[in-house]
Amino acid sequence: MESIILQYGWVLIVLVVLEGLLAADNAVVMAVMVKHLPQEQQKKALFYGLFGALIFRFAALFVITILVNYWQIQALGAAYLLFMSAKNIYDLHYKKDSTEESNEKVKKKGSGFWMTVLKVEAADIAFAIDSMLAAVAIAVTLPEVGHFDVGGINGGQFIVMLLGGFIGVIMMRFAAQWFVKILNDYPSLETAAFLIVGWVGVKLVVLTLSHEKVGILPVDFPHSTAWELTFWIVLLAIALGGYLVGVRHKNQDK
């Protein structure tokens, strides 16, 4: 029994670390999505959006074997993130009529808050499928505990996956809130943030192309060492470059 407890504890730690790594890039996307809202609404939008996403993750665990067949969900997520990245970078640097007055109008629109919540939920749904698949692959290696199944998965394994996902969503929420603060302190970081959003969109493109029903890339390519290293090196390079530019601009403004 002690051996089983240790195995379950170790897998839970692995799942939390996995969710934490995934939360890092996902949180940047969430932060960019809520940044246009008034400051008092940003935390609420993250809370409501990620609460809805948590409910989705819980429900999706029951039907994960069906859900994974729909590669279109990740494809739509990729298309949206790439569009958002390109549009906002264009607006920041080339759209001359993007004034503070027009930004205030956007903030005051009644539908802005709930539409933002829906966007946060939709983005997390696109991210969630891959993380849940990884969680299933890890959890099913555990010895079965109990005499009940949930959605075709052993009850003990299901509980570990649920706990890992729940902790991951909480981590994402606080990480996103921290990124919002960084973007408020260093406005010139917005370009880097939107570049990261686009890069995360590329990540979803890779996941889509490697889906077994698409087959353009090998199924195991998104989780290969080469791609993981490439993704994180590029992401960190964008973040570091944006931070250095942001600090320089802030020093010049003093």
TrEMBL record:
Family label: Belongs to the TerC family.
Top-level taxon of origin: Bacteria
Main localisation: membrane
Keyword terms: Membrane, Transmembrane, Transmembrane helix
Cell location: Membrane
Source organism (scientific name): Lysinibacillus xylanilyticus
Membrane topology summary: Multi-pass membrane protein
Pfam families in alphabetical order: TerC (PF03741)
Protein name (record): TerC family protein
Transmembrane region(s): 12-34, 46-67, 73-90, 111-138, 158-180, 192-209, 229-247
NCBIfam families registered for this protein in UniProt: R_switched_YkoY
